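subagent[fold] <- orchestrator: predict structure for attached chain, return tokens only, no commentary.
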Amino acid sequence: MTLIFFALISLANAHAQEKKAGKIMTDLYGAIDDGNAEKASALLTENMKASVPVSPVPFDKKGFIGMCMGFKSAFPDMHHEIVNWFADENKVAVQGIFRGTNTGPMMGNPPTHNKVILPFNTLYELDGNGKIKSIQVQFDNKAIESQMMAGIPDAKKTAEKTVMDLFAAMDSGATDSFSNYCSPDFTISNPFLSAPSPLSAFQGILKAQKTGFPDLKHKVVEMISDGKFVTTRGIFIGTNTGPMMGNPPTGNKVELPFLVLDEMDVNGKIKMRNVQFDSKSFETQLMAGINPNQVIESNIRTMFEAADNGDADKFLSFWSEHSHPYILGNENTREEFKNRIKMFKSGFPDIKRSADEIIITGNKVTVRGTLSGTNKGSFMGKPATNNTIRISMLGLFHLKPDGKIENGWIEFDSATLQNQLNKKAKK
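subagent[fold] -> orchestrator:
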């Protein structure tokens, strides 16, 4: 009789333990399905480990909860249906079915809006105090992928097509269409740029290249993609028959290998582009047979001519964006520089800056010349005198590797200028 009594007690305890284990399971699935990370976390020990097919290494507690909440974002209506379960001491085996509709982004991919029904098996180990200390989940990764992507175009082909379409737009000079292929937060890294830059910089580079190389062509040699990243190996081909970065055309043909890495966003647009090529090779091919000093001298004369015409923007196009111009020993902002050019043009409509001697030593250019003109308009707040001026002028310029002026000093005989203006006005 005693033995039977203790057997009944043991059976009752086992049944109670089984019910407790079952509640832990249903509470965990309920918390996950509800997106309640705090409640789900409370059911796990601090050193819990979880093996899941989506990761080659086990998750810790924080990683497992993060993965579950990621699934909740991807499948807001998800539900874990427990079909069968069995508890034996501190081990619980669960057979179930996952159901959900992919209406949110998942692992960087946009939602497909497909419904997923996925059988799964899970083995839990409890710590004896009502918490889970290990989880082993099994399901068919291929099955979830095939259901999610059913009827969806191949991500690799879609990404490759987007990149190819962008190259076609580049070759045609259709820079306004770049936003069709690039995300609003797009950035580009390029040897022509000092730092990662936005879409407008990318458009500016292509406009300059298309002007310098009207026949430009990006020949794609090889393209590799996983749907998120696209690597393109190709050759830039073009003939320099137009001005490039303020330089006159050289007429030379350039064939330059390049490597481009594009990263796609969740909407299938390019959000990051990294371009690599040998800038020295580009410069060598572009300038083959050309005397670089002749180009520099031509740029200086063209720059002075732009100032004579009152075209301040063109004049400053020969200066780098962060250049430091000095006039009569005082540093000017770009806007001050523009206003000074306009002031001289207004006061001396026939103004002429003559470069009588240009000396080039490495990246330094010294210009000795004259400034002449007739004072037909107001100048420095004073009315026109109709006097003719002719004064000496000296310029010293430091050039960057791309040929643009990094620093420049312009001096002229201001005392002689005032003396010539203050002569008795002509009648």
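orchestrator: received. Logging for downstream: The first strand starts at residue 44 and ends at 51. The CA atoms of residues 266 and 331 lie 48 Å apart.
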